[in-house]
């Protein structure tokens, strides 16, 4: 599928060998890879200064991918060059990779940065749930100060989350990953509609994606700071319940609509509860009163407070019970382990959501349908990722049949679409789910491609409902949106003529699978 709304990412990236030199910097081991590139440990050949080098390839990409990547790289480079603050990761140099033997990396951009020991995301991954991470308040002070500096300088981070907070060997706290950082134009800015579900403010879902991308305001960073502070002070608990990022984001939207109260972790210190509650004010306007600077000042003032109340053991048990009951009453997602390894989607330490484990029979695929047996559980598990009733196994199966005929090796290079769900790699990266739990998100892997399809069509479904398109047309609109984009369907107010034959095919398959 192609979508104008979510361009991001790159094809699987080849790696540079250890010992490779980029303008005076020698690369060592790979530290990790993100949506855009790979980060290597490195040192200066001249004096051994340690660094991390983020290599962002542009060479081997299709034109559309290159444009999307180029835009984000330009942002990252521009912001990195301008940012100069103790709580923003420093970029020592921006270089070009000279690797004629590795065409995919030849000409790539390399950002030479301060090297961190770990990201806050990694620290949270190994933290004990319920306890603040080590040095929690100092970390939050650093994050708030870095954010305040960005906002004062006229930038919005746009993707604040634990993975984008780096921790140095000497206790440094740096905000990083400025691919989505964008300069304010008046009171808001536009970025590609990416971000991270878990840290997106609820209003993000109801705003139209304009031709420039999604509108992002500093209050989006304030919301993200509230989520992050809650995670840091509780060892990873997200402030909204749910077994998946999608469910948590729906819970946040329910809260913003006033249908559910904000339930912060009961063990949080009162002052911190207030601060986090202010950050998580339900809408942009209510959050406006709190600037990153005012938060940074408040966080400074709370530096003495440990973040957690002392709770006697018995009371603590009671609180856990109350929280579990609250969550059960607020279940939004058919959670539990779906068996398809959606580990990356799970909230760290988020309480299991107990709901009806089986979807209703309606929408399940009949035994004698032509859906390959091996794919059935994959499709059923993928459909469970979405609570919207339109997104059924039958609908996913119909979409897949129309896209690829269930062929995992299907390819339409002319339109840059591959695999069983015909993902355009750059779009896939924006939504990617690790459906088979192998630690990799690969559009050629049917479980990954189908789980990601489910997440994406779930989002389409919601966009079309918000746009008040006729609910009885939702399956057709989803099929059209998957082929074009949410924006095209919303702007045309229905199925665009040019994809009508494809949509009719999906509806025929759906009717057969729903029989
Ligand atoms: N300056 C750095 N020092 C040490 N490790 C780093 C540095 N920058 C990034 N990393 C680590 O390298 C890995 C990849 O980082 P990168 O910024 O490319 O992607 P990401 O933030 O994980 O994902 P994405 O950019 O797709 O959101 C992560 O584990 C990150 O913690």
Automatic annotation (TrEMBL):
<dbReference type="InterPro" id="IPR000719">
    <property type="entry name" value="Prot_kinase_dom"/>
</dbReference>
<dbReference type="InterPro" id="IPR011009">
    <property type="entry name" value="Kinase-like_dom_sf"/>
</dbReference>
<dbReference type="Pfam" id="PF00069">
    <property type="entry name" value="Pkinase"/>
</dbReference>
<keyword id="KW-0067">ATP-binding</keyword>
<dbReference type="GO" id="GO:0004674">
    <property type="term" value="F:protein serine/threonine kinase activity"/>
</dbReference>
<dbReference type="Pfam" id="PF01464">
    <property type="entry name" value="SLT"/>
</dbReference>
<feature type="domain" description="Protein kinase">
    <location>
        <begin position="25"/>
        <end position="302"/>
    </location>
</feature>
<dbReference type="InterPro" id="IPR008258">
    <property type="entry name" value="Transglycosylase_SLT_dom_1"/>
</dbReference>
<feature type="binding site">
    <location>
        <position position="54"/>
    </location>
    <ligand>
        <name>ATP</name>
    </ligand>
</feature>
<dbReference type="GO" id="GO:0005524">
    <property type="term" value="F:ATP binding"/>
</dbReference>
<dbReference type="InterPro" id="IPR017441">
    <property type="entry name" value="Protein_kinase_ATP_BS"/>
</dbReference>
<dbReference type="InterPro" id="IPR023346">
    <property type="entry name" value="Lysozyme-like_dom_sf"/>
</dbReference>
<dbReference type="InterPro" id="IPR051681">
    <property type="entry name" value="Ser/Thr_Kinases-Pseudokinases"/>
</dbReference>
<protein>
    <recommendedName>
        <fullName>Protein kinase domain-containing protein</fullName>
    </recommendedName>
</protein>
<keyword id="KW-0547">Nucleotide-binding</keyword>
